[in-house]
């Protein structure tokens, strides 16, 4: 599994054509500092949107909730400081993004979830789900750190793929700007996680 997730994340970085930048500068800890949290806030979405915008936002709502859940486990169990720092930054940033995206869907009069077939219609089920997250709770020490980093790298790689699709097919300016932000920041996270994994 380690090789599979690394391969997925590396392929996403190659597809995006950019290695990104680190999300958490050394010494910043898990307080939301770094490339992701330093990004300027995205304004409230305008009322003009298409189906691609709605699908992207709904998929990201589910994606962010899973990422927050995994980050919470890592904040409690991770032993490597770099893993804790990443988990803290991801948790803080994705909570902010989740609130923003839910407000956009409310403005558009759309539900927060697109239904059970939403992911299936866009390449299959996500790598991360509640069962997988629960399974990480049984691990500890270096084994947990490596599992967390692998899962989160693959998870954020999926976000980059969704963002690239939104940039191609979307029409809402704010949603497309958010997709650009997702692609950039998640590439940075993946690069940093792959670096930490290589040092294990």
UniProtKB/TrEMBL annotation:
The keyword DNA-binding does not apply. Keywords: Signal. Residues 1-22 form the signal peptide. InterPro entries: DUF305_CopM-like, Ferritin-like. Pfam families: DUF305. It comes from the Bacteria. Gene3D superfamilies: 1.20.1260.10. The keyword Cell cycle does not apply. This is DUF305 domain-containing protein. It comes from Lentzea flava.
